[in-house]
Backbone:
């Protein structure tokens, strides 16, 4: 396979200076934008990379990027689909300030992000010092089942979290079951998912979750975005509201 000469030169220079390769790290988890998600977010199209989560204490968080931002340009390169962003970031020099243009709530915003080093972050993960872990142990709400869009959700408790294969310290709402053929099941939500946001708003209770759904119905929206965490990764899913 042919390898661009500028890439070879950059790798050789890094090996000479540092004894290893160094790739840029932005500190976000991203996902593709489906037509359903584009509609729920009010986007004009499905271009760009949707930020599903921002790594705590990472470069993106420090610059002000948030989950739900749609990255449309990185350091002068237009991002038309998700897979273009990781390569553009990895090819950018560590420690360099890169301009990141995002769409947030229908408005274009620009951020200067000083890139970290991907290899250094991966070493921290391997050593178990992931900054995303939390030691907070707030009082949990009493577990009460409820059905929202076909999701049976319950406030997290240590016992429930362990039963669903989650960290016992997680906080929020856990999907314990799904109605067959329900909007939530069709959207791809699974038992064991941790609900982080509904309608781009954090939900700490079943009541708050139901309120967001009702508000979307009053706006006559056809779908609502639900942000869930699964196996440590966050993602947005568009759930049809129906009647």
Residues:
């Amino acid at each position: 396979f042919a390898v661009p000469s500028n890439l070879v030169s950059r790798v050789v220079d890094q090996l000479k200076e540092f004894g290893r390769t160094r790739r840029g790290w932005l500190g976000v988890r991203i996902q593709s934008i489906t037509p359903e998600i584009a509609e729920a977010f009010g986007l004009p199209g499905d271009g760009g990379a949707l930020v599903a989560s921002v790594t705590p204490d990472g470069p993106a968080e420090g610059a002000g990027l948030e989950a739900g931002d749609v990255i449309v340009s990185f350091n002068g390169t237009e991002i038309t689909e998700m897979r273009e962003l990781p390569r553009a970031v990895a090819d950018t020099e560590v420690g360099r300030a890169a301009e990141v243009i995002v769409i947030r709530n229908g408005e274009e915003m620009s951020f200067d992000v000083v890139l970290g080093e991907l290899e250094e972050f991966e070493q921290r993960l391997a050593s178990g010092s992931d900054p995303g872990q939390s030691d907070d142990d707030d009082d949990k709400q009493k577990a009460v089942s409820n059905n929202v869009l076909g999701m049976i959700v319950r406030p997290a408790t240590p016992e429930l979290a362990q039963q669903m294969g989650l960290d016992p310290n997680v906080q929020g709402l856990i999907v314990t079951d799904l109605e067959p053929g329900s909007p939530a099941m069709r959207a791809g939500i699974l038992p064991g998912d941790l609900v982080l946001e509904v309608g781009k708003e954090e939900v700490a209770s079943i009541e708050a979750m139901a309120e967001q759904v009702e508000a979307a119905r009053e706006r006559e929206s056809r779908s609502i975005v639900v942000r869930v965490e699964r196996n440590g990764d966050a993602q947005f899913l568009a759930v049809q509201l129906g009647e």
